[in-house]
Amino acid sequence: MTQPTPATDTAAKTVNPMVKSALEFGPVAAFFAAYIMLKDHTFMVGGNSYEGFIAVTAGFIPLMIASTLILWRLTGHLSTMQIFTLVLVVFFGGLTVWLNDDRFFKMKPTLLYLFFGSALGVGLLRGTSYLATLMDAALSLKPEGWMILTRRLMFFFFGLAALNEVVWRGFSEETWVYFKTFGLTAAIFVFFMTQARLFQTYALEEEGDQDAEAS
């Protein structure tokens, strides 16, 4: 999910896609690797005992802040999702470490997907697609196509929120980490792959194609 960058920044703020991907997905990969190494360890800090998950979360927060700031510095732009994700990481990650309670961090994906699902729902009630505003630079669809995709994505986000609740409440901590690292990412990828027919049906015709048909 990518927001269009203002035209004045596009030429001056071009970033190597590999660097951009590393900044976006690197912190999550680092969290997963650190958890696998430290999940069975316990750390004593200030007379308090912290499990590996809490310690890894404490390291993830500054890493996420640093990667987001570097991404903003390089691109001159952050999407709404990137900003909101960072806020949730800092807030719920901070609560997790401060209260020594992993439940707060595990609730973060639920709230993130509820927020975006609700935002898309509000737009639909107003007869508009906020998704079209966010993704117009990445996709060219007719208005009715945007509305259908927005409705589907809204329900998809609500489904992910519910699924996250089921996994973190009903399964082991390690299962949730695997689900968070790989399951959610794969689910989003599969969702957009299954929308290929919609993209084809409601794609906007290029000017060249329209001229050819007219002639």
TrEMBL record:
Signal peptide per UniProt: none
Membrane disposition: Multi-pass membrane protein
Subcellular compartments: Cell inner membrane
Spans through the membrane: 21-38, 50-71, 83-99, 111-132, 153-171, 177-194
Listed Pfam families: IspA
Coiled coil (residue ranges): none
Main location: membrane
Keyword set includes Phosphoprotein: no
Keywords: Cell inner membrane, Cell membrane, Membrane, Transmembrane, Transmembrane helix
Xref: InterPro entries: YciB
Keyword Cell inner membrane found: yes
GO cellular component: plasma membrane
Protein family: Belongs to the YciB family.
General function of this protein: Plays a role in cell envelope biogenesis, maintenance of cell envelope integrity and membrane homeostasis.
Entry protein name: Inner membrane-spanning protein YciB
Lineage of the organism: Bacteria, Pseudomonadati, Pseudomonadota, Alphaproteobacteria, Rhodobacterales
